[in-house]
Amino acid sequence: METLNYQVLEKSGYDGYILKNAPEKVLQFGEGNFLRAFVDYWFDLANEKADWNGKCVLVQPIAPGLAKMINEQEGLYTLYLRGSENGQKVDDKRVISSVSRCLNPYEKADYEK
């Protein structure tokens, strides 16, 4: 399986919303599943629906974290959204593109940025 990135998305013919380049406007401490699936999802919607035109830079808060994986995927990840909305069943997926990169303060190269 190929690692998700902008080139793979382009080759796959993905036709959902994607924001490739935008200024970094948010410094977010934490890169876990909840923050990415909730907070960064809302930033992605703001980009699509309200022309916010911004990206989030994540900071890995503890040494064993996800920075390497997030950066290998160029900040992209797939969100599976399941539940109900207005009484209707929701079973959707969306590639989130509101994250630009993740800093690891435990790595000297990232610490010196």
UniProtKB/TrEMBL annotation:
Entry-linked InterPro entries: Mannitol_DH_N (IPR013131), NAD(P)-bd_dom_sf (IPR036291)
Single GO MF annotation: mannitol-1-phosphate 5-dehydrogenase activity
GO biological process terms, semicolon-separated: mannitol catabolic process
Domain Mannitol dehydrogenase N-terminal: 25-100
Record-given protein name: Tagaturonate reductase
One cellular component term from this protein's GO annotations in UniProt: cytosol
Pfam families on file: Mannitol_dh (PF01232)
Gene3D superfamilies: NAD(P)-binding Rossmann-like Domain
Keyword line: Oxidoreductase
Keyword Oxidoreductase: yes
Organism: human gut metagenome
